[in-house]
């Protein structure tokens, strides 16, 4: 009874404060994986950077050079987004992810990682809410540092059209002319996953975009 009375009194005295608390948006960390440096720009392994750049441009988000990476912030309807491109290089991506989750007080269930995948045909999209790293060093380090594989990830297929012993060259190589021709459309579709994840949730987003 006393608790209810205090709530009613507080609501009457400080209605703006109560409304602000109720209207505070959910916060999400969106991470595009890649390697910094001109030699890695627009290579297959940096598709995570390209996806998140595509989204940032669509909402006019501005990048800042911050600790462990480049960070941009924006709001999409009720969701507040923290966009991150780690500057740790791929194999230490978990350090940047952990830091910004903690710094922004974002729960792991509100984390979305954008990454390349050799095991998926070029341009195909596959979304998972948890699972193994599939041999990807960036995902592997995130899992190691966070102590869990229960976080959402978008895998962008880069295909596996390489000869024996040439995997590294393929992954760190540039797209073919045929791939470059359709890449902008695929990047746009991949970027649309970000607001869907934040506003509709992982399950609905998986139904909408998987294998699209």
Model description:
This protein has 212 residues and is of the alpha/beta class. The protein has a single domain (26-209), classed as Peptidyl-tRNA hydrolase (Rossmann fold), CATH 3.40.50.1470. The protein contains eight helices and seven strands, in the order H-H-E-H-E-E-E-H-E-E-H-E-H-H-H. It has helices at residues 2-13, 15-23, 47-58, 93-103, 137-146, 167-171, 177-200, 202-209, and strands at residues 26-32, 64-66, 69-76, 79-86, 111-117, 125-128, 152-157. The chain has a seven-stranded mixed β-sheet. It is globular and about 45 Å long. The termini are far apart.
Question: Which terms would index this structure?
Answer:
212 residues, Rossmann fold, 8 helices, 20% strand, globular, disordered N terminus
């Amino acid at each position: 009874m006393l608790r209810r009375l205090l709530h009613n009194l507080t609501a009457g005295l400080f209605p703006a404060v109560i409304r602000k608390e109720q209207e505070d948006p959910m916060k999400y960390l969106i991470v595009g994986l890649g390697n910094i440096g001109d030699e890695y720009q627009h290579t297959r392994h940096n598709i995570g950077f390209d996806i998140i750049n595509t989204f940032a441009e669509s909402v006019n988000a501005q990048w800042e050079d911050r600790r462990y990476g480049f960070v941009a912030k924006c709001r999409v309807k009720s969701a507040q987004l923290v966009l991150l491109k780690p500057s740790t290089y791929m194999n230490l991506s978990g350090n940047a992810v952990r830091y910004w989750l903690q710094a922004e007080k974002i729960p792991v269930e509100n984390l979305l990682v954008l990454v390349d995948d050799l095991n998926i045909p070029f341009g195909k999209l596959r979304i998972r809410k948890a699972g193994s790293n599939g041999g990807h060093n960036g995902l592997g380090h995130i899992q190691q540092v966070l102590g869990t594989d229960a976080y959402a990830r978008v895998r962008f297929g880069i295909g596996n059209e390489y000869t024996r012993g040439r995997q590294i060259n393929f992954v760190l190589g540039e797209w073919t002319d045929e791939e470059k021709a359709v890449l902008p459309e695929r990047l746009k579709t991949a970027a649309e996953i970000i607001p869907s994840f934040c506003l509709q949730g992982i399950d609905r987003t998986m139904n909408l975009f998987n294998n699209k």
